[in-house]
Amino acid sequence: MIEIKNLAKKFAVENPKKLSEQEKKDPRLKGRFFHSVLDVSFKVNQGEVLGLLGPNGAGKTTTLRMLSTALQPDQGSVDINNVNVLKNPLLARQKIGFLSGSTGLYGRLTGRENIEYFGQLHGMSKSGIESRISELSTMLEMESFLDRRSETFSTGMKQKTSIARAVVHNPEVVILDEPTTGLDIMATQTVLDFIRSLKKSKVPVIFSTHHLGEVEELCDRVTVIDKGISQFDGSLQEFKNQAQDGNLHGAFLATIQQGEL
Amino acid sequence: MWLVFLKEIKELVRDKKTLFFMIAVPILVMPAFAGVAIYFAHSAATEAQNKVLNYALVGGQYAPNIDTEMLKTEGFARVEIEQDADYKELIKSQTVDFILEIPANYSNDILQSGQALIKLHLNDSGLNRVFNRVNDIVDAQVKLLRQTAFSQLSLSEDQQIALLKPIILEKVNTADTRENWGEKIGGLIPYFIFILCLQGAMFPAADLGAGEKERGTLETLLISPIERYKLVLGKFLTIAFAGLTSALITVTSLALWGLILSQGMAIEFVVAFMSSIGSVDFILMFLMLVPVVAIFASILLSLSIYAKSYKEAQSYMGTLMMLLFVPIFLAMAPGVELKGVWAWVPLTNVALAIKELIKGTMDYFQLIAIFGSTALIATGLLAFCIYWFNKEKVLFR
Questions:
Q1: Domain-by-domain residue ranges, chain B?
Q2: What is the ipTM of this complex?
Q3: DSSP code for A149
């Protein structure tokens, strides 16, 4: 179970003069600080998939980075299976599998070596890593390229390897930041199937996306963030009800418009 | 920490660019450049020695001996010129290589004629052996004329020697060969080693900090269940290892190729000089490099992790390299010795200490103090690097 309460994070603006006119008008810019996340709360139970939606710059990635312990929140709390992420970041990291939106691989290592390295960092045994890689490579259809240097990989191969790397240690929760961005249809399907398999294994998943079709297909819950605030948090059906015709696109726009009022 | 170190080393040895600069350049490229330079210098010197020199002799009638010798000697070709010819123009137009002008007071009886001034007109700006080759002929005549004069004066051999050099000032050097050459070249050695250490560490440093950001691997690494300081130490060790290895490979390669390429006297000198430095001093020199490399590695990693991209990291490192020239140049400045305030200037003191070790005049207690202070600075910089690595505004700029 993942529970986030009243998360907030601000960043010092290095050079306010360099901000665009639109950025200068953002209400989150206060003095020399940009309040990327003002108040975000949501909860994901075992076996649930939560879709994190929001326009670009809404604060989704900052929220996920705080969840993953990469960033320290200024306010609020994050609990993962009763572990306080802020107080026990090292313990929390063992429970989290995180795929960042801008993830990359070590190009001079093979796909297998990339995954192995992170397994070792998680303190896994050699045999444990080997069997997990075997399992993941079958699930994500990676056998054909696993032992090639990752600098030769296509976008899809890279993303599959990154996902395998993120979950090599059998995490208790999985956080995926736009995992299907830039992927072709086949690779997207493999990633979505993988999320489905996580759901079956009762692993809670949070994934941010701009593809509402993926939300419809996979999500049990939806959270919409805009201007650093969670504007909606509820079940998929409750989210659909935001629009008169039950259309996700309409529901999304209606939620954003309500937030602006 | 070792896990990070081993992974970074694995990546490092698979990087063609790093391998090229760390191994191929010092082992092959630099000695190849040196070899080519030596080859061309040697060829040019041989050519200058064997070249047939066109010359004109003015006033040859006053020195028939010289005239005859020059005609007899191989490698000289006589050219006749007008009496009022413009010497400079003749040389410029390459009609002649030189003109030898014998004065009218030249005589075989020097006791009567006194000293004669023979002028050698030539363009001496380029590589040539004209003076030496002409001087060989003139010198033979000088000996002959001197001998004749001494015979006329009925001087004994001892008297002749005393007349030629009435007083000899003999220099009795208390410095041995090692100290002598150590003073001359000892300042250059730390300069080269420092630069090589820095250069060897720069590529991996840029890759291990800014490279992680650019590839998008940093964030994944940061959320691994490993303490930040262990991450930093793993990366720091890799950079320091690369710097030291690069310097060792380069120095070993230069020494070996130097021995191979140098000839005759040079071999004897190099071997004698190198063998005069004890193995303990070599080990101490290497030990002194350890905190220096640690300083470089800490600064480079801090700069690299601050940079947003590989390119930005390299621009910071270029500036750092220029700044580092200052303490190293100070150590080579005349009058700067390992005394007083200079013993406390970071890096300058290590460079001076290495010079003293090469000379064999190092005070080992002072060496401990220098090692300690340098190690302290390195520890401080490493602590800063760890602190730096924990700053969100640095990691997520």
A1: 2-30+176-395, 51-164
A2: 0.85
A3: B
